[in-house]
Amino acid sequence: MPASTVTEYLAARPADRREALNEVRRGINRALPPGYKEGIQFGMISWFVPLSTRAHPPRRPAATSRPRTAKLKLQTCCYT
Hints:
This protein is of the alpha+beta class and 80 residues long. The protein has a domain at 6-53. The protein is built from 2 helices and 2 strands.
């Protein structure tokens, strides 16, 4: 069964690899801007911004949104 937390993921690794992974994690966590969270996605350690902290409101569902019409400007061009 795949790990569901970072702690479980690291516990399943050999000690030498666990130490190397922790060193890389520390560097990434120091470099990331505030708001990022560390977790398990796709069976590996990953960093992401939780949807609850998004700066903009969610988009309207497609069923209720109005269709957008594209307006194209045609330009005449001469190649010599």
